[in-house]
Amino acid sequence: SAVDTPPVRRVAIFGGTHGNELSGVFLVKHWQENGAEIQRTGMEVKPFLTNPRAVKKCTRYIDCDLNRVFDPDNLGRTVVEDIPYEVRRAQEINHIFGPKGSDDAYDLIFDLHNTTSNMGGTLILENSRDDFTIQMFHYIKNALAPEHCPVLLIEHPSLKYATTRSVAKHPVGKYDK
Question: Which protein family is named in the record (predicted)?
Fold first, then answer.
């Protein structure tokens, strides 16, 4: 039977979570200049550069890995002078696209990454019970056929993910070699 879920209205495309992974950086900057390419009727699509300081230095991060600090402790930290840059940035991202776990959070975040692993274009799924994302992945795989597009399930029974994309109701990671 079909599951009745609210429509997806707000989508973000993240690039530069790791400042030295340039595919997402290039695409986000391109879509910031040419937004019509990603806009769809009835939907807000926002391209967003997640870690601009690391992008500018072309390094993975400045103080700590942005893709690991979206946990309650870091998101709730008091902003003081010596707070790590990425923790402060995570709080900003959570404010814009979240708050994480709330009804106000963005519906979908695509977080674009590069990898040195020989895995080609791979979609990352964090929750095997997320029916919407599973159906979307099925659609993407069919649309890309005959190109190979594996889906990697990184679900863990007790781990709550602290990834950049975990702010959204439906987090999606996309990795390219």
Answer: Belongs to the AspA/AstE family. Aspartoacylase subfamily.
Q: Which of 33-37, 117-121, 140-144 is least confident?
A: 117-121
5 in a domain, yes or no?
A: no
Give me the domain span that covers residue 60. Answer: 10-175
Residues 171, 123 contacting (CB under 8 angstroms): no
Task: Assign residue 64 the CATH number of its domain.
Answer: 3.40.630.10
1 pLDDT band (50/70/90 cuts)? Answer: very low
Check pLDDT > 70 for residue 3.
no
Instruction: Provide the domain count of the chain.
Output: 1
How far is residue 100's CA from residue 54's CA, in Å, rounded to a whole number?
23
